[in-house]
């Protein structure tokens, strides 16, 4: 979600940067050991792909569309840490190339979408795969949307709690959890279904292309 | 049938790709669209198929203007897309259905036709795809994929067939097959190609886009092939040193790009 | 100015920028924020107007939505604070304007110079993204060329799924090719011993 700078307090984004940086360093080290000299081009192309996957449309009833994220698919195919790095880099690219700003929201988005979203997708896939692969893929896609949505709703919703003037008026995002949770989660439910379907279908097409299978 | 007047197009990020292009194409003509890379051939084909709206100029199909507004009209949109079809340069760009059958049936299904099965099997037979009908198109070879695309386009029984460099990625046998197939086909044909030696096999009229993105020739193909200065100006032929044993010389010529 | 000095200067500017971001989110005085916004616009010079336009386009909708919702929800309950609305919108404007200005002025290459690997990845990712974007656009055009009537959900999903799959497949292939080309040019040979 593109949250402009100024809606998240330092008491949230500074620790988020600390955690995210640690996670980035860890992820980079892990990737290096697995992939050797192919790591850098692979990561670059994965980042480009993640960037462009966000252009793929999730069709919604009524002719409208919403943008996919592809995080579930990437996580299932390439694992949590690759996805985390790629998504983080995409967020950086979006900020720099599209002038989409949001430097304070970046660690929150990176952790929510790239780490939590990817991890939830992997866990769901691993858990359900033995029972039914399609359901597992659907769950991976759906959770890769819902879990980040939940985390971002929480990150926004606690702003009035953690940063306010002595008289209680907010200083950053003004709405509490009772507003942000339904406001963010409900629309994302529809998107989650779409992303789940897309993840399952795309995986099958990829198989027909002779593409990679889930690790 | 097709009339372009003063078509000019600029890419969104600036560069001009077509300059003052005007021509008319009558039903049944077989036209070669020639030009070096970057001269604007693909863009012109996309203008002709209503995918790109030119920055300036007018495009009329059967007398009616072709514009985003016109295409939004259900009647005209449906008519135009059925009658004017485009084969993209890379067949992969067009293929997205789970099986060859579905890929070919995609168009007829939209029209709500009742004899879809008959049409699909007939066209699959024409292209020798019958044994592949239940397979995913991605699993086929390059030449076969292109046949799937052609089948999917021709099953609509279009009036105008636009082909973007159809032989660029084909093996020689498939090229031979394609030439024969197009020869017998009763449609208005516009083929964009860089392959000068193949051109005479495909049509009689030539439209040449120069490197300045203008139409620098519109006429008989055979006459063009004899006009060396014009071919050189359009960057359609090249020159390099030729070695024949101990003798070395240099002259303009073409190679078979395939 | 020597390139190394320029790089040092830009790195300092970057650190200053980051400090400014933290400062702007730690100050809760509208006047200070307004002054900061003014300073950014002065620094932007002749491009100040274009910069403000970009700020409006970028964050306008979100801010408008939040502000309007805030007014609608809080006013009836008597908890509306105009000071808050002014504060938060000024803060967003100042931060966004500052970031846009910095992004415009500081060369990415020098900013990411602290890690050769990171710079490489971002550069390559950018160029690949532009290429792949055209590919996805072609897929969309191809569908448009074959669409005679409004397509149903099933067809549109098939197309999106196939686009995602083709994109991934192509990207992987390209990644392999790039790695080979890099190896052929000795990119991996001069890795310093660790």
Strand content of chain C: under 5%
Strand order of the largest sheet of chain A: 1-2
What fold name stands as the CATH topology of chain A? Arp2/3 complex 21 kDa subunit ARPC3
Structurally, the number of domains of chain A stands at 1
How many individual domains of chain C? 2
Oligomer: heterotrimer
- Total count of helical runs of at least 4 residues of chain A: 8
* Helicity of chain C, as a percent range: over 70%
The tally of beta strands of chain C, per DSSP, is 0
CATH architecture of chain A: Orthogonal Bundle
Beta-strand content estimate of chain A: under 5%
Q: Give the strand tally of chain A.
A: 2
Q: Flag low-confidence runs of chain C.
A: none
Cα shape of chain A: globular
CATH hierarchy, class of chain A: Mainly Alpha
Instruction: Spell the H/E element sequence of chain C.
Output: HHHHHHH
Notes on the protein architecture:
The complex is a heterotrimer of chains A (215), B (258) and C (194). Chain A has 215 residues and is mainly alpha-helical. Chain A has a single domain, classed as Arp2/3 complex 21 kDa subunit ARPC3 (Orthogonal Bundle), CATH 1.10.1760.20. Chain A contains eight helices and two strands, in the order H-H-E-E-H-H-H-H-H-H. Chain A has helices spanning 10-35, 39-53, 71-78, 80-97, 106-128, 133-157, 159-162, 177-208; strands at residues 57-59, 65-67. Chain A has a two-stranded antiparallel sheet with strand order 1-2. The longest helix of chain A has 32 residues, at 177-208. Chain B has 258 residues and is an alpha/beta fold. Chain B has a single domain, classed as 3-Layer(aba) Sandwich (Rossmann fold). Chain B is 36% helix and 28% strand. Chain B contains eleven helices and twelve strands. Chain B has a six-stranded mixed sheet with strand order 6-7-8-3-9-10, with helices on both faces. In chain B, strands 2-1-4-5 form a four-stranded antiparallel sheet, covered by helices on one side. Chain C is mainly α. Chain C has two domains: 3-110, no CATH class; 112-184. Chain C is 80% helix and 0% strand. Chain C is built from seven helices and no strands. The mean pLDDT of chain C is 85. The A-B interface holds A 204-205, 208-210 and B 98, 136, 138-139.
């Amino acid at each position: 979600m593109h949250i402009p700078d100024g809606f998240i307090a330092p008491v949230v984004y500074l620790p988020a940067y600390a955690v995210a940086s640690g996670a980035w360093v860890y992820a980079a080290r892990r990737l290096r050991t697995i992939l050797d000299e192919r790591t850098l081009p692979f990561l670059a192309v994965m980042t480009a792909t993640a960037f462009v996957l966000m252009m793929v449309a999730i069709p919604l009833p009524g002719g409208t569309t919403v943008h996919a994220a592809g995080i579930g698919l990437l996580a299932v195919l390439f694992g949590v840490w690759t996805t985390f790095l790629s998504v983080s880099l995409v967020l950086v690219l979006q900020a720099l190339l599209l002038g989409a700003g949001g430097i304070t929201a970046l660690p929150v988005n990176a952790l929510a979408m790239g780490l939590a979203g990817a991890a939830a997708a992997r866990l769901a896939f691993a858990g359900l795969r033995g029972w039914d692969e399609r359901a597992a893929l659907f769950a991976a896609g759906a959770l890769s949307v819902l879990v980040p949505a939940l985390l971002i709703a929480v990150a926004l919703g606690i702003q009035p709690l953690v940063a306010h003037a002595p008289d209680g008026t907010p200083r950053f995002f003004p709405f509490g959890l009772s507003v942000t949770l339904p406001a963010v989660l409900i629309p994302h439910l529809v998107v989650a279904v779409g992303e789940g379907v897309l993840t399952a279908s795309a995986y099958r097409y990829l198989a027909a292309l002779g593409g990679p299978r889930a690790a | 049938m097709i009339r372009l007047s003063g078509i000019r197009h600029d890419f969104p990020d600036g560069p001009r790709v077509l300059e003052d292009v005007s021509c008319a194409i009558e039903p049944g003509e077989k036209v070669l669209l020639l030009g070096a890379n970057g001269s604007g051939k693909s863009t012109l084909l996309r203008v002709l198929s209503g995918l790109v709206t030119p920055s300036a100029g007018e495009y009329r199909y059967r007398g009616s203007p072709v514009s985003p507004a016109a295409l939004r009209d259900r009647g005209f949109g449906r008519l135009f897309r059925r009658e004017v079809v485009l084969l993209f340069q890379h067949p992969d760009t067009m293929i997205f259905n789970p099986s060859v059958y579905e890929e070919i049936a995609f168009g007829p299904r939209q029209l709500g036709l009742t004899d879809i099965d008959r049409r699909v099997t007939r066209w699959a037979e024409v292209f020798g795809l019958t044994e592949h009908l239940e397979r995913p198109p991605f699993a086929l070879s390059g030449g076969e994929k292109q046949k799937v695309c052609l089948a999917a386009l021709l099953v609509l029984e279009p009036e105008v067939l636009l082909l973007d460099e159809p032989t660029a990625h084909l093996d020689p046998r498939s090229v031979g097959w394609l030439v024969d197939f197009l020869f017998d086909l009763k449609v208005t044909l516009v083929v964009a190609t860089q392959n000068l030696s193949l051109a005479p096999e495909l049509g009689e009229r030539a439209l040449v886009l120069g490197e300045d993105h203008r139409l620098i020739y519109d006429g008989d193909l055979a006459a063009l092939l004899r006009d060396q200065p014009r071919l050189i100006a359009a960057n359609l032929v090249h020159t390099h040193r030729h070695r024949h044993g101990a003798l070395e010389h240099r002259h303009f010529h073409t190679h078979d790009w395939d | 100015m020597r390139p190394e000095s320029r790089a040092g200067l830009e790195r300092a500017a970057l650190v200053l920028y980051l400090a400014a971001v933290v400062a702007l989110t730690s100050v809760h005085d509208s006047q200070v924020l307004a002054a900061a916004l003014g300073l950014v616009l002065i620094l932007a010079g002749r491009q100040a107007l274009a910069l403000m336009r970009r700020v409006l386009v970028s964050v306008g909708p979100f801010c408008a939505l939040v502000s309007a919702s805030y007014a609608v929800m809080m006013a009836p309950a008597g908890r509306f604070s105009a000071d808050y609305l002014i504060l938060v919108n000024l803060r967003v404007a100042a931060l966004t304007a500052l970031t846009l200005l910095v992004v415009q002025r500081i060369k990415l290459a020098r900013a990411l110079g602290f890690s050769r690997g990171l710079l490489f990845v971002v550069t390559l990712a950018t160029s690949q993204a532009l290429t792949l974007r055209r590919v996805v656009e072609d897929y969309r055009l191809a569908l448009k060329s074959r669409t005679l009537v409004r397509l149903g959900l099933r067809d549109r999903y098939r197309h999106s799924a196939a686009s995602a799959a083709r994109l991934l497949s192509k990207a992987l292939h390209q990644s392999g090719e790039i790695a080979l080309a890099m190896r052929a040019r000795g990119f991996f040979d001069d890795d310093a011993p660790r």
